[in-house]
Amino acid sequence: MSVSDFSPQSLPNWRRAVLKVGSSLLAGFGDQPDAAGLDPRYAAGLARFIEEARAQQREVVLVSSGAVAAGRGRIGAGGDSLVLRQALASLGQASLMGFWQQLSDRPVAQVLLTHDDLRNRRRYLNARATLRELLRLGTLPIINENDAVAVDELKLGDNDNLAAAVASLVDADLLLIATDIGGLYSAHPQRDPDARPIARVERITPELLLAASGGAGKLGTGGMRTKLEAAAKATAAGIPTALFCGRDPAVVQALGDGRLHGTLVLPQGDRLRARKQWLRHAPSSGRLQVDDGAAAALHRQGASLLPGGVVAVEGDFRRGDVIEVVSTGADAAPFARGLAQYSAMEIGRIARRHSNDIESVLGFRYGESVIHRDDLVLLVVDPEVKA
Ligand SMILES: Nc1ncnc2c1ncn2[C@@H]1O[C@H](COP(=O)(O)OP(=O)(O)O)[C@@H](O)[C@H]1O
Ligand SMILES: N[C@@H](CCC(=O)OP(=O)(O)O)C(=O)O
């Protein structure tokens, strides 16, 4: 099996990507690994890819495994029980961050998440706001599962699935999964000599999942199966997913030039359409009445709803709920929907106020808008604005 099994194809155009780097690229192969058991021989190329992407005005959120391997390297513990892995992850996480910091020109920022954080609407929005802010500040956010507290139902289980969840969380337009093999094969490539490379996947079928179920490498958690599961989640949200070998400098270099040697899993529909479709049909928990100025701003593509334009609040919704937006006047049919950044009670207090006053009125602030433009969908097109 070699990387040249996968002939090049165009990578979809992207502006924000989530890059997942598995333990198989960070540890377990060095004759002289550093004190934490991590070895930069492959990570350095991936860090360079991230820097070059930033230079092209692209944003990358990194999901990095390797804490357990780093912890093991530090104290040389054998064994594989869950609680030992949790302890090793705690021992290794700081080393993992230090490792990436040494390879990166920009400040790195650690975000540890569990499944629970992503299921809970408020924590989901908070994590999203933090990640957006970290990107705005020009830092490199690095995400890992919060292994010390995550067991069973709290756990996403593997970083491939975590990366897919993060790709939706940050509205990425590409998920990149770097691993130690060229891409997806029709069977376990190290065990089946007839395994064929699969460069393009239109739909993830049960047969494909079965082909990918042969288990992980010696350091990895889920093998190809969890990568395909992650790709299924991301592509269902409209995010194309690329699987490639992070060990081959030529493959990583080509990626920066928009060429993929690996497996591309195609999105099921358009990313924005998938999200907007959801916003359009999710049950709403309340309404905001807005003045003409705000209505006109929302009709112009790209505007968020600011508290100053809100005239009245109806319903008892919470931060993160879907709400409708209506104009004042006789015709009260909603013309937009979106996710509330603040609860009904909070919006009641900041309505008609300038965004700069939010903090002094509420004592805290999640952001300047009551509905962020990324979370807003227009239901009707205003003919005057369109013309
Ligand atoms: N059908 C398949 N195609 C490619 N790799 C497979 C397949 N089935 C199992 N694998 C295994 O999955 C491994 C990659 O997963 P894993 O070890 O979990 O890596 P990582 O640490 O990068 O997440 C490969 O090295 C290979 O041994
Ligand atoms: N959170 C764990 C990684 C779990 C995991 O999914 O590992 P991998 O299959 O190498 O991506 C760690 O940092 O070691």
Automatic annotation (TrEMBL):
GO terms for molecular function: glutamate 5-kinase activity. PROSITE patterns: GLUTAMATE_5_KINASE, PUA. Substrate binds at S65, D147, N159. It is found in: Cytoplasm. The keyword Nucleotide-binding applies. SMART domains: PUA. Its EC number is 2.7.2.11. ATP binds at K20, T179, D180, T221, G222, G223, M224, R225, T226, K227. Pathway: Amino-acid biosynthesis; L-proline biosynthesis; L-glutamate 5-semialdehyde from L-glutamate: step 1/2. Catalyzes the transfer of a phosphate group to glutamate to form L-glutamate 5-phosphate. NCBIfam families: proB. Belongs to the glutamate 5-kinase family. HAMAP family: ProB. This is Glutamate 5-kinase. The lineage of its organism: Bacteria, Pseudomonadati, Pseudomonadota, Gammaproteobacteria, Lysobacterales.
